[in-house]
Amino acid sequence: MLIDYYNNIHNIKYIFFIFICIIFLFFLSFFLYIRFKFGFWRIQPVFHIYDLHYYLFPHGIIQHCMPERNKYCNFKDIEVVKFDSLDNYKISKFASFVQSHYLRNKDNVFLPKEENIVPYFTGHNHPCFVSFYNISELLLDCKTNTSIENNKIIGVMTSRPVRIYINNGSKDSFFDAYYVDYLCVDKNHRKAGIAPQIIQTHEYNQRLLNEKIVVSLFKREGELTGIVPLCVYSTYGFEMRTWKRPPRLPGYLGLIEIGPKNMHYLVDFIKIQNTKFDIVVMPEISNLIELIKTGNIYCYIIVHDFEVLCVYFFRKSCAYVRKNVEILSCFASINSKNNNPDIFVEGYKVALWKIYKKHPGFQYAVIEDTSDNNAIIKNIMLRTKPTMVSPTAYFFYNFAYPTFKPSKCLILH
After folding, report:
1. Residues facing residue 343 across a β-bridge
2. pLDDT tier at 385 (50, 70, 90 boundaries)?
3. How far is CA 225 from CA 151, 194, 387, in A?
4. Are 40 and 191 in contact (CB under 8 A)?
5. N or C terminus: fewer CB in 10 A for the chain?
6. How far apart (Å, rounded) are the C-alpha atoms in residues 72 and 197?
7. Largest interatomic CA distance in the chain
8. What are the structural domains of the chain?
9. What are phi and psi of 385, to 5 degrees?
């Protein structure tokens, strides 16, 4: 009897030991897989999914001092300059490169013009930056039959400042960060380690040229990296071909398009509604005005007795799902507690229709499932099946913080 007891104890200890070993091997394999698959990102100051101490003790800024130079820094081929120092020729080359290499999948293309790019880098209190990865190539001058050296762009990346507010009770905080955009590599030079070099060199020079901002913000669609995201959500795409004109809103409500002259309605409303979100990412108001004024962002509010009830933000995407069918993206919305949820959803449809009537090229609706957009998505999916559902995430660079619920994120940029 006593022998059986000790045998049972021994067996339990053995099983427990095997269990611990299996758990250890699982985490070790997972750790090695992440380190191998995301080799560049494992040495970056980001919140890796295996950084257990950051889950318990959010660190905030990870690296306060200047980053060290490493093997990914390429100061020979990569030029990092302030965006406002670019002349018209350089801006034209940048736009042409993005059009040719950012997204080219038959008729599914990304075709921003200069007037769709420059406004995003206008009206900021901090400098914006752009990086060019250049290689030398020899061109033959047919007239003189001589060779001319030319700098060919094979990669670009930009960053522009945004203000980040974290509403966390007694530990509220706000700081400036750089939003990274237009990371693009020549399609003939991909999978050659160019993108990591651009990111590392850009970040190093950006920190050197503006010591006041040490955090960056990236957006990623499709496959996600091994980094704990700021937020992760789905982006939905809907064909508008079968959609009909929605009924008008009740007469006591006004749907107003925001412009430079009535911008104060929007600014005041955002200030009031700011605390309903756990995190708010915004550019300078002067930049938002520039984007609205140039038709790159459309903003509509519903008003009752001079009180703003809700707001919708749409972006001219410059992306086409097929020839002449451009995407109009609703990237954020805010609904106040004083507004009827049904009115909020119908207001989106009326605002969308107004934009479509002015710009008939918008025939594909995209909605990002952040802020208060979920109510709109659920309503549309009652009658229209999305033709595209894409995983999307934002993540910090040089800042560790737990993930926020997408419905608690207001991201305007």
Report:
1. none
2. very high
3. 32, 17, 24
4. no
5. N
6. 5
7. 104
8. 53-221 (3.40.630.30), 235-411 (3.40.630.30)
9. -85, 130
Nearest to 315 by CA among 413, 241, 243, 178: 413
pLDDT in tens, 115-140: 999 999 999 999 999 999 999 876 65
Q: Which of 268, 230, 212, 243 has its CA nearest to residue 348?
A: 243
* Of the candidates 235, 191, 177, 232, the residue with the CA atom closest to the CA atom of residue 49: 232
CA distance 254 to 256: 6
**What is the C-alpha to C-alpha distance for residues 413 and 402, in angstroms, rounded to an integer?**
21
> Could you tell me the two tokens for 271?
């200030």
CB 118 within 8 Å of CB 110: no
Instruction: Tell whether the model's pLDDT for residue 159 goes beyond 60.
Output: yes
How do residues 45-91 score in pLDDT, each as one tens digit?
999 998 888 888 888 999 999 998 999 999 999 999 999 999 999 99
CB burial of 319-351 (b: ≥16 within 10 Å; e: otherwise) equals bbbeeebbbbbbbbbbbbeebeeebbbbbbbbb
Pairing type for strands 146-166 and 173-185 reads antiparallel
Reduced to 3 states, what is the DSSP secondary structure of residue 2? helix
| CB neighbour list of residue 389: distance below 8 Å, 6 or more residues apart | 234, 235, 236, 237
Single-letter code of the amino acid located at 75: F
